[in-house]
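re: that chain from earlier
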Amino acid sequence: MKLVFICSPYRGDIERNTLRARAYCRFAYTKGAVPFAPHLHNTQFLDESINEERQAGIVLGLHLLSHCEALWVFGNQMTEGMRVEIEAASKMDMPIKYFNDKCEELTNYETR
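^ sequence. v structure.
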């Protein structure tokens, strides 16, 4: 099974984005992947509203990204945190797939 980093929005409507991230993880699981969503994991012990802890969460997520085999990007919007993760995965020559918020794979996607 492939370890896949789940990249999706978190800030803003945190409750809604958390539910969506859980659904994206479930989708990845049904596709035979082992999903890892740092915004679901790290927020269990770090406070997103405290800038230092948010930055620590980003650093932890990027460290774990380096152990993943692919990055799957979900949603219809691109956040700054997502851009950081995509840029890091690109520098690692990691395969990146893009999906809309209904988990439909997008082709010819350009990072905005």
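The helical segments are 14-30, 38-41, 51-65, 80-91.
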